[in-house]
Amino acid sequence: MSPTFSMPSLSGTSLAELQRRHIHDLQKAYEEVMTVFSVEAIAIYSGHAMPYFGDDQTPAFQTYAHFLHWAPLPEVQHSWLLIRKGARPVLFLYAPEDYWHLPAQLPEEAWIDEFDVRPCSETTPPPLCKHTAIIGDVDALAATGSLVGVIQPEALLRALDELRMYKSDYEVACLREANRYAIAGHQAALTAFQGASSELDIQLAYLAASRQRESLVPYQNIVGLNQHAGVLHYQHYDIDAPRHRYSLLVDAGHRYRGYCADLTRTHAGSDAPSPFAELIQAVTAIKDSIIDAIAPGVSFLELHEQMHHHLAEALITHDLFHGSAEQAIAAGVTRAFCPHGLGHSLGLQVHDVAGKRQPDGSPSPAPDLHPALRLTRTLRPHMVVTVEPGCYFIPMLLDPLRTQPLPINWTLVDQLSVCGGIRVEDNVLVTADKHQNLTPSF
Ligand code: GLY
Ligand code: MN
Ligand code: MN
After folding, report:
1. Which of 345, 350, 374, 427, when mutated, tests ligand 1's pocket best, judged by the most ligand atoms within 8 Å of its CB?
2. pTM (2 decimals)?
3. How many angstroms separate the CA atoms of 20 and 228, rounded?
4. Which residue from 7, 30, 31, 261 could staple onto 182, CB 3.0 to 4.6 Å apart?
């Protein structure tokens, strides 16, 4: 089933109007950054694809996210945005005549009117004054000596990253729409799983229903059957369906105007040992209870620690651990069952920028006990985060616990290990007083 492809709006305001306000607010915010850092302009490079060594083929390309923050053109290359005080942003769009490829084209959308568009056919940067901050991966260009500005001033880049932490109403509408497409994919993936498909078939069903080609997904879809569900970033798609259907984990998203959905669902198959479906429900309940606690002023690290507490209780309730929740946490049992963080900031990148920074740009690293946590911040209105608790049966992490005198029900662990693991993931907006779940219930 395909989603209905209407343009989203917020309380009757069109997406075009939300985007116009987004661009105007961004102009104001950039002007403040220019004042603080004493620069006259900020030039943002789109990036360009680099060929494989010795080849004329390139990997799939995604435009640099600071460029997308202004202009939803996820496939343009060799292009520039020039932002100056009191002037319309200039879009230098690289669109040479070409009969091998379709030249870059602008959509017929209202946001174009906010820009001074200058098509160009050379890959050289536009003329810049020397008080320009240059943002982008421009090493190859800088080597030619053609750039005169200050490349990637660290503190200024951190300030621009910080702007991206807080999503405008336009960005939230895009994230919501990306979620809608992704859910259509997840529903099709479940149907394909019930039809005994292979990982590749499930992936193709996901892409078809969510209306996207593989090169445009925000991250490589994770489609793991059985023990592959316990490989956190499983990267293959087996062509043949396995004989037994224990489990399916799908972690897959969608990009809408550059903005990423990042959703995970886990399903029990017809051959799953009976406690597995209940354990999926328990992890889903952990997700819901953490989401319930999301509000401005809440520390994400504390939510992550709460996840470990809930997980300890679930291990006890489901007969996997016969001690106390405190013991399970102190002995590292919950960390062996769930080695990743509770979630991360979400936006133009799936693991969005500034998650491990203070608002002033200084580092705020993950604590030693939870090194994989990607977001250490206090939640504020307009942040968008993922909430993705998990419970996995990963031999590499669990085996070292077997030699310790811990009350783990190894018989049940061994029985469930054919299922690989469970992750359930939603995308959540922090509002002025609490939160909104951007992921439709499924
Ligand atoms: N899809 C990667 C993640 O959930 O962080
Ligand atoms: Mn994910
Ligand atoms: Mn995620």
Report:
1. 350
2. 0.96
3. 44
4. 261
